[in-house]
Amino acid sequence: MPVLVITGTGTEVGKTVTTAAVAAAALAAGRSVAVLKAAQTGVRADERGDADEVARLAGPVTAAELARYPDPLAPGTAARRAGMAPVHPHEVAEAAAKLATEHDLVLVEGAGGLLVRFDAAGGTLADAARLLNAPVLVVASAGLGTLNTTELTARELGARGLELAGVVIGSWPGAPDLASRCNVADLQEVAGAPLLGALPAGAGALPPTDFRAAAPAWLAPRLEGTWDAEAFRIREAP
Ligand SMILES: Nc1ncnc2c1ncn2[C@@H]1O[C@H](COP(=O)(O)OP(=O)(O)O)[C@@H](O)[C@H]1O
Ligand SMILES: [Mg+2]
User: What would the mean pLDDT of 190-218 be, rounded to a whole number?
Assistant: First the structure.
């Protein structure tokens, strides 16, 4: 799995924190890691982007981003408003493929959810994943509403012939409500793919050394961690 595309059921679901955890677990397993933020929106030139945040939390990764647009909008819209060139899916795929020749693992983080548009032609992260023939990891929120957005995302991946590697819960609450607890079992059902981890709420605020030490315990063996989905489901079941 040299390239793994990381999308989410929406924005602010924990894609960046999850990308950092996957990177940290891979580093701990002795692998070299690159992180590619396809298009960074909503930050100025002097601010830290998602790729920088992954490097801060996870440690020595190659961090790259293809474009940066100031408005916090979908990349295609933000590029148009800024009068800047958009990022096309083939550019994302080419950059990821190049990084894959130099690293054991390349993590490609999208912007927002799967069908957020990158260019005027309607190109998306799904198109980049198709060009790369790469599996896709879906980061989902824990609570009410996540079953619908997760199933929609899984169905779109399936319709495009893309492999859904699994689902990671981006932020698992310290005191999960009924919906969150029921979702542990239902998420893998609606996704038709395994649950591959759950990051505790507050993980992104941990000191980086603590984050790196704990990350493997949040992720399943497929992501080089030690997290046990079945034990988690039983423990959190209502
Ligand atoms: N497990 C978590 N622990 C701490 N903060 C989190 C966690 N998941 C998400 N967040 C916070 O929620 C916000 C969105 O997370 P982020 O990973 O940037 O989402 P996305 O990349 O999907 O937009 C950020 O402010 C981040 O710090
Ligand atoms: Mg992000």
Answer: 98
Average pLDDT, the chain: 97
Residue whose CA is at the smallest distance from ligand 1 atom 24: 12
CB of 149 closer than 6 A to ligand 1? no
Question: What global pTM score does this model have?
Answer: 0.96
What pLDDT is attached to residue 184?
96
E strands present in the chain? 3-8, 33-37, 40-41, 62-65, 68-69, 105-113, 136-140, 164-172, 195-200
Give the Å distance between the CA of 97 and the centre of ligand 1: 27
* Model pLDDT, residue 1: 61
| Ligand lying nearest the CA atom of residue 13 | 1
Q: What value does the mean pLDDT take over residues 168-180? A: 97
Write the CATH number of the domain with boundaries 3-236. Answer: 3.40.50.300
Is 37 one of the catalytic residues?
Answer: yes
Spans of all domains in the chain: 3-236
The protein residue whose alpha carbon is closest to atom 25 in ligand 1 is 12
The C-alpha angle 95, 97, 101, rounded to 5 degrees, equals: 115
